[in-house]
């Protein structure tokens, strides 16, 4: 469903814009239809930039992105606009994702109106069906974002995104700002909706426990590069890259990583090596 080839997104920074920041530096990956790929790494490693680059919310510097066989990196602005309903993003801050001045009803109905998905009565039925699907009461449809909790706002965001029945969703740490009990509810709901709709997902998080629960496959990102990728159980139960080992050790022991773990290698050009079927690890020559 999703194929990424050698994707790069570079920024210029500094007062004179002479410093090059390689936020995404040669990422290649594939996501099978109906599955979820978890993307994990520390803050600032490029996870969010990668997710936004896949949807061309940020224009990549180089590389190709294919969604269901369509190279979206080669689409014109008008072609991309027509294609956008098929790919959606859930942002970290649900409140900031919604217009604070309009009711929840209009937030969910707006995409349907813009894309002309039915008449007034049809849109009304669809909105009420979606609000029930994400576990909210119709009484909340007349409220505005500031009148709802963080978990309720995130459910409204889910309903809004599902209204267009997208093929691909990028979820950028959608529960990090919520209480633990609410996180579990939203994650369970997201997983069920993705399964029922056969939706392909990229789920971004820095939480190994969340990634393990949500993902069919997992990719580990360091400084703009994917250093390990494969089935979730293989990568997290049998980590091969030094950085993956550190992440897993830190998440299971809540302590500093033992000094016996190997340090970052230096020198040589990186390449991906398949250590088990479907399990790839970056090594240096």
Tell me the number of helical segments per DSSP (H or I, 4 or more residues long). Answer: 10
Number of strands: 12
**CATH class (first level) name:** Alpha Beta
Beta-strand residue percentage = 25-35%
N to C succession of SSEs:
EEEHEEHEHHHHEHEHEEHHEE
Q: What would the principal axes of the Cα set say about the shape?
A: globular
Subunit organisation of the chains: single chain
Strand order of the largest sheet: 6-7-8-3-9-10-12-11
| Straight-line N-to-C gap | 32 Å
State the helicity in percent bands.
25-40%
Q: Provide the number of structural domains.
A: 1
Report the CATH superfamily: P-loop containing nucleotide triphosphate hydrolases
The CATH architecture name reads 3-Layer(aba) Sandwich
Largest β-sheet summary: 8 strands, mixed
Average pLDDT score? 89
Low-confidence stretches: 254-263
Within the CATH hierarchy, at the fold level, what is the topology? Rossmann fold
> Which secondary-structure class do the elements indicate?
alpha/beta
Radius of gyration: 20 Å
């Amino acid at each position: 469903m999703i194929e990424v080839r050698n994707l790069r997104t570079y920024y210029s920074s500094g007062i004179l814009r002479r410093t090059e920041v390689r936020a995404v530096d040669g990422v290649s990956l594939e996501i099978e239809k109906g599955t979820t790929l978890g993307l994990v790494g520390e803050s600032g490693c490029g996870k969010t930039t990668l997710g936004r680059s896949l949807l061309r919310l940020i224009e990549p510097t180089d590389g190709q992105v294919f969604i269901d066989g369509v190279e979206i990196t080669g689409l014109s602005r008008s072609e991309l606009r027509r294609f956008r309903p098929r790919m959606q993003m859930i942002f970290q801050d649900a409140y900031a994702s919604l217009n604070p001045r309009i009711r929840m009803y209009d937030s969910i109905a707006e995409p349907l109106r813009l894309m002309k998905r039915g008449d007034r009565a049809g849109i009304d039925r669809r909105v009420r069906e979606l609000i029930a699907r994400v576990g909210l009461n119709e009484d909340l449809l007349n409220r505005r974002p500031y009148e709802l909790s963080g978990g309720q706002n995130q459910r409204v965001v889910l309903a809004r995104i599902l209204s267009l029945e997208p093929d691909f969703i990028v979820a950028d740490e959608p529960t990090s700002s919520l209480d633990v009990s609410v996180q579990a509810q939203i994650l369970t709901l997201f997983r069920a909706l993705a399964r029922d709709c056969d939706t392909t997902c990229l789920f971004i998080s820095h939480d190994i426990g969340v990634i393990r629960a949500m993902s069919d496959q997992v990719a580990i990102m360091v400084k703009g590069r994917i250093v390990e990728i494969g089935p979730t159980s293989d990568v997290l139960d049998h980590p091969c890259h030094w950085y993956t080992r550190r992440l897993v050790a830190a998440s299971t022991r809540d302590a500093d990583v033992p000094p016996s773990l190997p340090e970052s290698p230096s020198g040589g050009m990186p390449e991906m090596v398949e250590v088990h079927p479907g399990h790839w690890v970056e090594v240096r020559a």
